[in-house]
Design goal:
Largest sheet: 7 strands, parallel
Number of strands: 9
Shape: globular
Order of helices and strands: HHHHEEEHHEHHHEHHEHEHEHEH
Distance between the termini: 25 Å
Number of helices: 15
Strand order of the largest sheet: 1-4-5-6-7-8-9
Radius of gyration: 19 Å
């Protein structure tokens, strides 16, 4: 059994700091790239056996403490009547972007049965791991999903989505309400299928200021976490240095910190009554082992052995990352913190 990831989510003592990586499933693995030569991303995600295989790669190859489901945040939008595709080197493309009150009203209620492939993959992963690592389910957050739905494709500033938010506040809240309802049902179904922990990804929320976040986003995110109080949850966003207190108010047992804020300061701001996840800059792994080790040591020093730290990157693994370096980082975090935990135990005795 390896329950250190789950224990850290609950801010319990662990034998070593747990570590996993966002976007660890795929990208840097040669075996994954070989699969991508034969299958598209959505085809991989919608085939339970292939999805499970990619999800399990990092546990087998790197020794991470949790397996995060290989999926795309756009998948649960299709059952709501959204036509989409994933373009290589671009990202999600929406066939008919939302631009009006009528477009919001046309969205269908979400049925978890229409993403049974995701739930089947979770069951396969859970059975294969058999307690050797935690299983993480996830969903995109309402704001990030709304940005894609309105823009129709990735954007640098999501100006079209934000303009809709300001111009049509009633329609915006209707859209957010529908998306929050979907997220609750989607994450609950993942937990029922065997996910130990669920993470909410609000990748683009850092584009908002505090007042707009409080008015247009926070109530909907708070409802999601309130509906999942019995499940360990992680709340993650990027570029959120100005929003950390508000994200913590919205909910989450663990708050994800990106590399733009020091872990020590971020933890102080969200409060020591919850855990934190992060926050090594992904680019350090492109600079070699010394830069990676030094950055990791800083993160661990700032965590100061406090219960509730989950080591991760500030965002996802970059595609060109050396897999051997990831493996070395996992070992370093485990060995350094296991040594510190043993020393603390000796002092107590």
């Amino acid at each position: 059994m390896n329950d250190r990831f789950l224990r850290a989510c609950r801010r319990q003592a662990v034998d070593a700091t747990p570590i996993w990586f966002m976007r660890q499933a795929g990208r840097s693995f040669s075996a994954y790239r070989a699969l991508r030569e034969r299958y598209g991303i959505l085809e991989l995600a919608k085939t339970p056996e292939l999805c499970a295989e990619v999800t399990l790669m990092p546990v087998r190859e790197l020794g991470v403490d949790a397996a995060v489901l290989f999926a795309d945040i756009m998948l649960p939008l299709e059952p709501m009547g959204v036509g989409l595709r994933i373009e290589p080197d671009i990202g999600p493309i929406i066939d008919r972007p939302i631009r009006s009150v009528a477009d919001v009203a046309a969205l269908r209620p979400f049925d978890p049965g229409e993403v049974s492939f995701t739930l089947d993959a979770i069951r396969l992963v859970r059975r294969e791991l058999d307690g050797r690592a935690g299983v993480i389910g996830f969903s995109g957050a309402p704001f990030t999903l709304a940005c894609y739905l309105i823009e129709g494709r990735p954007s640098r500033d999501f100006a079209i989505a934000k303009a809709f938010m300001y111009r049509e506040p009633a329609a915006w809240h209707d859209l957010m309400e529908r998306l929050a309802t979907m997220v609750i049902a989607y994450l609950r179904a993942q937990v029922d299928a065997g996910a130990d922990v669920v993470q909410l990804f609000d990748s683009w929320v850092g584009g908002l200021g505090p007042a707009d976040y409080r008015e247009f986003v926070q109530p909907h995110v708070r409802r999601i976490f309130a509906a999942l109080e019995d499940v360990p949850t992680i709340h993650f966003g990027t570029g959120t240095a100005a929003l950390l207190e508000l994200l913590a108010e919205a909910g989450g047992d663990v708050i994800g910190l990106d590399h733009r804020v020091s872990l020590a300061d971020g933890w102080r701001r969200v409060g020591y009554d919850r855990g934190v996840q992060g926050n090594l800059d992904s680019a350090r792994l492109l600079a070699g082992w010394e830069a990676t080790r030094d950055g990791a040591r800083t993160v661990l020093d700032e965590a100061a052995g406090r219960p509730g730290h989950i080591f991760n990157l500030g965002h996802g693994v970059l595609p060109q990352t050396d897999t051997d370096l990831l493996r070395r980082l996992v070992d370093f975090v485990h060995e350094e913190t296991a040594r510190a935990a043993a020393t603390t135990m000796e002092v107590r005795v």
